[in-house]
């Protein structure tokens, strides 16, 4: 009864500029509603319109492509002009955790500007296609050389793809309970030798032609798929262009889980399952079982993120380590990544030993490099943005860690995961395609080129398999579209929490 009252209050036409959709799960079926109508979204693709018009008319993952179509559109004003890929199954996953899923989720309109509640010029988190579209570029041994392809994948496919490239047999792409993952390896884009007879044992480095010896997964947080590919094709991102020449890119990218926020999707990438299974429901969520507000995506708590993983979850580092014999150097490495459980080397593990981010900074003096003197700095004016400033520090340190791990090719990890953060800062600060966003892409590319050059000096650049992705997309907010649904919720006089904002828990 109270959910119906809340839905009614949030779907009034007056809130249409800020409320794109309200979504929830009822009798095991995903439901979406807004001021134009209500629909039940069945897993078989059926849209059962309950009232009015279908507010989720399109679920096309390839909507607003080619990129010129996105550039030419002013941005959808109503949900019926937008697209929501995998809406049913993504909503179902976001509502599958009995303690941590909200009672309903409010999706911001793409244009909503909410700086008072943590919003930025560039935003993500929505169920919609542009905010959910992360790039996906692969290259090197084991990857087909196809260039740009008109196709898409899902971020839950990334972990399984990295795993099979590292030699994990497909029969072992399961969680800790033996259940299949939500994602699957992108087999149609790989050319791996047939599994040895008898299957699931043995190391990953067979030495046959086309067998990946080392795999590097790269995440550029929030990198915009269309702009990244367009800049690479225009010669502005030589590192990405180098990957594209030797491999492929999906123009539809990889679809994030819902909500399309950072830690939910880092976790989905590295576990191959959606939030309803891994338990990281958002960057901020409420846990009814403990009565605790959990904030896993924060410099103060990043290093603790593995604590929030649900039992039964298995990380890609654990999957790979189960199939690579112990050696004197790390088999798996996780650089600047919160979800590092099981990795032999992890930045966050180092922070845990030091007692956390702040303790590390306090105890070891100013260990963060000065971004003003970074060789990757191109536009000093962007350092006025404190998040961009910090992102450059993290990424410069990340590159240092990467080069140390790859001091020689023989002892380098079988799987290296290398997360970068300045791209998220650039896209938040200026919105996609802004000078700051493009600066962040160029400098991340320059760090990639520095690594590629290093591999060339080692003589192994063509022996390494790469996968470059992100955790979500980005859309530009309209500073003229402000407002909040909070007064409408408050007016109901019912006890609730709104985390995010957007995850509404009825108490
Ligand atoms: Zn992110």
From TrEMBL:
Family matches, as Gene3D superfamilies: Alkaline Phosphatase, subunit A (3.40.720.10)
Superkingdom: Bacteria
Database matches in PANTHER family: BIS(5'-ADENOSYL)-TRIPHOSPHATASE (PTHR10151:SF120), ECTONUCLEOTIDE PYROPHOSPHATASE/PHOSPHODIESTERASE (PTHR10151)
Protein name from the UniProt record: Nucleotide pyrophosphatase
Species in which this protein is naturally found: Pedococcus ginsenosidimutans
InterPro entries: Alkaline_phosphatase_core_sf, Phosphodiest/P_Trfase
């Amino acid at each position: 009864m109270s959910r119906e009252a809340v839905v009614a209050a949030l779907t009034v036409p007056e809130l249409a500029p800020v409320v794109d959709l309200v979504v929830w799960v009822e009798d095991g079926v995903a439901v979406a509603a807004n001021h134009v109508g209500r629909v039940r979204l069945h897993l078989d693709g059926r849209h059962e319109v309950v009232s009015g018009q279908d507010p989720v008319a399109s679920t096309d993952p390839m909507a607003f492509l080619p990129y010129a179509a996105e550039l030419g559109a002013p941005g959808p004003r109503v949900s019926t002009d937008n697209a929501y890929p995998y809406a049913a199954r993504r909503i179902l996953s976001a509502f599958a955790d009995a303690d941590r899923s909200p009672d309903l989720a409010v999706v911001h309109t793409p244009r909503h500007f909410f700086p008072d509640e943590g919003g930025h010029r560039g935003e993500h988190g929505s169920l919609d296609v542009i905010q959910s579209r992360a790039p996906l570029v692969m290259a090197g041994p084991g990857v087909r050389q196809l260039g740009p392809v008109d196709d898409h994948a899902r971020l839950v496919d990334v972990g399984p793809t990295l795993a099979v490239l590292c030699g994990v047999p497909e029969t072992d792409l399961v969680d800790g309970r033996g259940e299949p993952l939500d994602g699957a390896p992108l087999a149609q884009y790989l050319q791996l030798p047939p599994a040895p007879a008898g299957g699931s044992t043995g190391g990953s480095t067979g030495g046959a032609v086309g067998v990946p010896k080392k795999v590097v997964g790269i995440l550029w947080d929030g990198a915009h798929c269309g702009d990244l590919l367009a800049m690479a094709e225009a010669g502005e991102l030589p590192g990405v262009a180098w990957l594209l020449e030797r491999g492929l890119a999906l123009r539809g990218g990889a679809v994030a889980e819902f909500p399309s926020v950072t830690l939910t999707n880092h976790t989905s990438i590295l576990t191959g399952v959606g939030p309803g299974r891994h338990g990281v429901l958002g960057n901020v969520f409420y846990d009814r079982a403990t009565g605790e507000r959990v904030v896993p995506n924060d410099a103060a708590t990043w290093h603790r993120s593995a604590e929030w993983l649900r039992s039964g979850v298995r990380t890609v580092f654990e999957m790979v380590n189960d199939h690579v014999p112990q050696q004197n150097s790390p088999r798996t490495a996780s650089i600047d990544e919160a979800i590092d459980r099981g990795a032999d080397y992890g930045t966050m593990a180092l922070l845990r030993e030091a007692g956390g981010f702040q303790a590390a900074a306090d105890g070891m003096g100013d260990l963060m490099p000065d971004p003003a003197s970074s060789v990757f700095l191109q536009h000093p004016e962007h350092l006025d943005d404190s998040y961009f400033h910090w992102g450059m520090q993290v990424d410069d340190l990340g590159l240092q860690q990467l080069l140390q791990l790859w001091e020689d090719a023989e002892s380098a990890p079988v799987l290296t995961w290398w997360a970068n953060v300045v791209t998220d800062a650039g896209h938040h600060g200026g919105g996609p395609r802004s000078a700051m966003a493009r600066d962040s892409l160029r400098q991340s590319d320059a760090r990639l080129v520095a690594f590629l050059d290093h591999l060339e000096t080692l003589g192994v650049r063509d022996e390494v398999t790469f996968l470059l992705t992100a955790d979500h997309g980005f859309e530009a907010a309209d500073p003229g579209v402000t407002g909040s649904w909070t007064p409408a919720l408050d007016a109901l006089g019912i006890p609730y929490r709104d985390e995010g904002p957007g995850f509404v828990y009825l108490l």
